[in-house]
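Long-time lurker. I teach an intro course on protein structure, and each term I like to show students one example going from raw sequence to a predicted 3D structure in C-alpha cell notation. This year I'd like something fresh instead of my usual example. Would anyone be willing to generate the C-alpha cells for the chain below so I can use it in lecture? Attribution to the forum is fine with me.
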Amino acid sequence: MADFVETPEGEEIVETLADSAVDKLAGVPTLLAAAMRKRGFTELTSVQRAVLDAEFEGQDFRISSQTGSGKTVAIGLGLARHLTAEGVDSVADRAGPSVLVLVPTRELAMQVRDELHWLYAGVRGLRTEVVMGGTSIMLERRALARQPRIVVGTPGRTLDHMKSGALKSADICHVALDESNRMLDMGFREELEAILEQLPKDRRTHLISATFPAGVRKLADRFQKNALHIEGTRLGAANNDIEHAAHILDRRESYAALVNLLLLNEGARCLIFVERRVDATSLAAKLSGDGFPVQSFSGELPQAQRTRTIEAFRAGAIQTLVSTDVAARGIDVPDIDLVIHVDPPGDADSYVHRSGRTGRAGRTGRSVMLVPPKLQRQIVRLLGAARIEAQWKPAPSAEKVRKQLRKRFRQQIHERLANDETLSQTQIDYAKGLLDGRDPAAVVSLLLEFAQPKSKRQPMNIREPRNGGAPSASAADPGFVRFSINWGEKNGAAANRLLGHICRRGQVKSQLIGSIDIGHDSSTFDVETSVASRFEKLVQRRDARDPHLRIVRAGAAGGNSEPTGRKPFPKLKSKKRFDSKRKRRG
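-- Reply from a regular --
Happy to contribute to a lecture. Here you go:
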C-alpha cells in the first residue's frame, strides 16, 4: 500500500512500504504510524486492519465493530488517503471543512476530536475542531472561522452552525456517522437527515456502528451509494477480554449487592449503570454517604462539570461513576476494571455498549448484572442475542466479602515480609524492643489488629430470592427497623432529600439508613436496629423546619414493625419518565 508523506515544500512523496512480519503497523501512512507508535500502538486492532486493507476507492463504507475495538482510529485510517494525499490545500482554497464526523454525545465528540488530533498531529496545517451543545456557541463560531480541516460535532449543534452559516458545507467530501445506531435511538433522525441533505451530492458518506438494525440500514440505504461493508468484529467478539457475570436477587437487595461488589473491588475503577438521571444522582449520594469516592454522571450536568467529573475519574480522584446509558457514550477511560448494571439494559446492543466500557486496550475487565428473578428469562435471551455467555452465580455475601478482605490483607503481609529489604535497622531494633519480655504471638496479633485496613463500611447481608424473587421473611439480616414518613413523590420527595431530612431529624449518619422506598403520598425507610429506639424518640418531636412531616414506626402506621433486611437503593415509582422521551440536542 502506498504511504503519502508531505515534504516541507508541500509536495507529495509516495513511499511504498514493504510488508514486514516484524512491523505490525506495516501499510499505515508513515506520519500516522509514527503518531501511533508514539501513542504506544504496536499493532492494529481487527477493525483498523480491516479498514486499512479494504479496497474502497471512491466507495462509501459501513464499519461494524464493537465498543472498545478502536473504531475512531479506524475512521482516521479510512480518511488518510483523502487527508494526506489528495492535495493538502491551503485555507484560502476552501470555504469550510472537508471532513465532518457526527457523534451522539458531547463526551464522544471530545474523544473523537482528541483521537483524530493526535493521529494527524504530524500532518502540517490539519486542524480539528469540535462543536457540541453545552459550550459557548460564539467560541465555536470563532473556531470554525479558522477553517479547520476536520469538524467533529453532535447533530443538534452541528445543524445550528450550518443554519447560521458558521459551518460551510460546500467543501465537505466525507461525512462519517459514528455510533449511528445510538443517534437514531436518541431521536436525532431529523437532524441527521437535515444535515445530510445540505451536503454536496458527490460527497462520500460513511457509517460506523456496533450493529446495523433496520433503522440504521434504512438511513444508510438512503444516503449511501455503492457501500462496502467492513466487519471489524462480530457481535460479542470485542468482549473476549471481559468476564461476564449475573446475580439473581430481589430488587430490594440491589444496594447490598452493590456495596459488597465495591468492597471486593476496592481500589478498582468502576462504572455503574442505572436507567434514569434521578437514579444516578440518588445512588451516587447514597454511596458517597457510605464512604465510597463516587459521583453521578448524566446528561443534565453542565458541560464544564461533566468534563471535570471525567477528568477526576480518569485521574483516580474518584473511583466510581454512576451513569445513564446516554451519558456514558464517549467515556474514554481505558482502565475501567468493573462495569455493574444495577438496572439491566433493555437490549443486546445496549449491553454490548455498556460492557464495552471495560476490557479495553488489551486489558481484562468484568461486567456484572444484578437481575431480578422476573427478568431472568429476558436477560438470558438478551445475552444470547449478544452471543455472550455469562456466569450465573449468587451475589457476594457479607461473609464472602469479609473472607476475601482478610485473604487480601494476609497476602499483603506475606509479600511485605518476603521483601524485608524495605525494613531499616531502626525499625528492626524497635521491633526487638517490643518483643522483649512479651509473648511474640500476642504482640503480632495486636499489631495485625491495628494494621487491618478499615473498610469504608461493613459488608451487607443479602437475602436470597424465593419463588420468583420474593425474599424469605425469616431469612438473613435482622439488622434494620422500618419507619414511615408522610412525604411522597406527590409533594416532591426524592431519595437525597428524604435522606437529608431523616439524618437531621433523627441525628443519625447516612450509613445507618437502609432502603428508602418512595410512594405517591408517603415513603418508608429502614434504620439500623442499634439506633432505632433512640431514632424513634427523637423523631417524635415536632420539627420546627418541617412541622407537617411525621415519622413513625411502620408498624404503627399499619405496616410491619419487625426488623427488616437491608434493601436496595430505591427507584421512584412514578410512571413519568423524565428523560426517555425527550430528544436531546447535542
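Some talking points for your students: The chain has four domains: 44-231, 237-397, 400-451, 477-564. Residues 44-231 form a domain with the Rossmann fold fold (CATH 3.40.50.300).
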